Amino acid sequence: MSELNETGPTLDETGPGAAAKPAHGHVPTGRPRVVIIGSGFGGLFSARAFEHADVDVTLISSTTYHLFQPLLYQVATGILSEGLIAPSTREVLAKQKNVEVAYGKVVDIDLQGQTVTATALGTDTIYDYDSLIVAAGSGQSYFGHPEFAVYAPGMKSIDDALELRGRIFGAFELAEIAAASGRHQDLERLMTFVVVGAGATGVEMAGQIAELSKRTLPHDFRNIASEDARIILIDAANAVLPSFGDHLGAKARKKLESMGVEVLLDTKVTNVDAEGIEVETGDGAHQRIPALTKVWAAGVQASELGKTLSEQSGAELDRAGRIKVQPDLTLPGYPNVYVVGDMISLDNLPGVAQVAIQGGKFAAKQILHRLKGQPTDERFKYFDKGSMATISRFSAVASMGKLRFSGFIAWFMWLAVHLFYIIGFKSQLGTFFHWAVSFLGRTRGERTATEQQIFARNALDESGFEAKVPLGSGRALPERTPDPKRDAG
Ligand SMILES: Cc1cc2nc3c(=O)[nH]c(=O)nc-3n(C[C@H](O)[C@H](O)[C@H](O)COP(=O)(O)OP(=O)(O)OC[C@H]3O[C@@H](n4cnc5c(N)ncnc54)[C@H](O)[C@@H]3O)c2cc1C
């Protein structure tokens, strides 16, 4: 009998009639076990901070890649491929032998029992932990109108970016057909692009759609003038880039307007449907804008796991679902559980990559101190390295401490910083090449778009695919046979 048969379940235990029983996701090795939830900035940087440490780390994530969200808009507008901004987490951490990467969506955390349950395509797995770092980030908020998502995809995931790419390039294709067949009355709707939210993502999206229509596409169509596309940026607040201050916000607005983007501030979205968007302006007037393509770049909602943690620890949630952590990023009453990044509410820290990166590294350091019996820091201290947003090629705004930059110098700084933080030399080189093609030339290397990209998500939602196709049927997997060489790390 093989070793696997000795330790694993018999055929009867795994057969069609077997009871749904989650398996354990790792083999006890005697070393302290750290579980990290999420492979974004918080999760990845905390995992890396355990390099050479005498612990076993399991990083569980609902995505198999580390997503560099700040460049999603470039995937949506055909500048970069998704692979460049989302390298495989497994590959990124391959050389760090004390880290095991597990694909799965965490559906439960038991703070008392110190376990995390994750599910992947119908198979549940339980992971024990001695210390836990929760870095599950945030999703899009439609401010109580989730139904808008069907017509106005957000900008949070690879799926969002690819769907938007399909919709943006697809709208120009439909306009070309309409113009060629004499349906000129349809052109206004087909060639109007509305971006909701005038924060960094909205500004970047609006700027890139404008560049696409005016610089990249004009020579490619025979029946439409792509440069006639109408691009509208809408926000309920009365400023563009409010977190950058009045001066830079005004500069960004002026630049966008010089590129032909219509900026509608003090304007609230009241409805979104397949054919357009309805808004209420500051003076109470209602207006309908016919627009096939809508992009939602407003509002975030922290991961649902915040609720799970709040119910068990008593920590409060704010309106965006972020959990009010202790000053040292732990949960009240649970000094071994850290929450980092977009999920936290602490000292008005913004939802930016550096908060997640520094928080993740801080949590890892604290855990290692505790394990060695050394004193831990009482507070997480965030070092603000500044913020940046691009508007178009050669134009950006940047704010660093008391310094403010705009125009080419800010754009150059933006390029350098983003290139530095993209994970992996392969991605850095590829990104550099794609930028050269797009910014020095006029073309874009990643215009591939399919109908499936546009319609698959809604079709999947409607079919209830996840519930219907439990690939593992919730059955226990054979336990992994301990491998002394591998487990020695
Ligand atoms: C379009 C866009 C542009 C941005 N631009 C900038 C910018 O220019 N500069 C800047 O500083 N910040 C920017 N940000 C914000 C920045 O990306 C976030 O603050 C940062 O990603 C937060 O890191 P995080 O680790 O908390 O979450 P994330 O990076 O979102 O990672 C969350 C991880 O958790 C995983 N996950 C979620 N739920 C579960 C679950 N239930 N089980 C298992 N895994 C789960 C996800 O798959 C993901 O891997 C931008 C964000 C967006 C969306």
Automatic annotation (TrEMBL):
Residues 477-489 have a biased composition (Basic and acidic residues). Its EC number is 1.6.5.9. Residues 1-27, 466-489 are annotated as: Disordered. It is an enzyme of class 1 (oxidoreductase). InterPro entries: FAD/NAD-bd_sf (IPR036188), FAD/NAD-binding_dom (IPR023753), NDH-2 (IPR045024). The keyword Coiled coil does not apply. It catalyses: a quinone + NADH + H(+) = a quinol + NAD(+). The chain crosses the membrane at residues 403-423. Residues 15-26 have a biased composition (Low complexity). Residues 33-360 form the FAD/NAD(P)-binding domain. One of its GO terms (molecular function) is NADH dehydrogenase (quinone) (non-electrogenic) activity. SUPFAM superfamilies: FAD/NAD(P)-binding domain. Gene3D superfamilies: 3.50.50.100. Keywords: FAD, Flavoprotein, Membrane, NAD, Oxidoreductase, Transmembrane, Transmembrane helix. Belongs to the NADH dehydrogenase family. This is NADH:ubiquinone reductase (non-electrogenic).
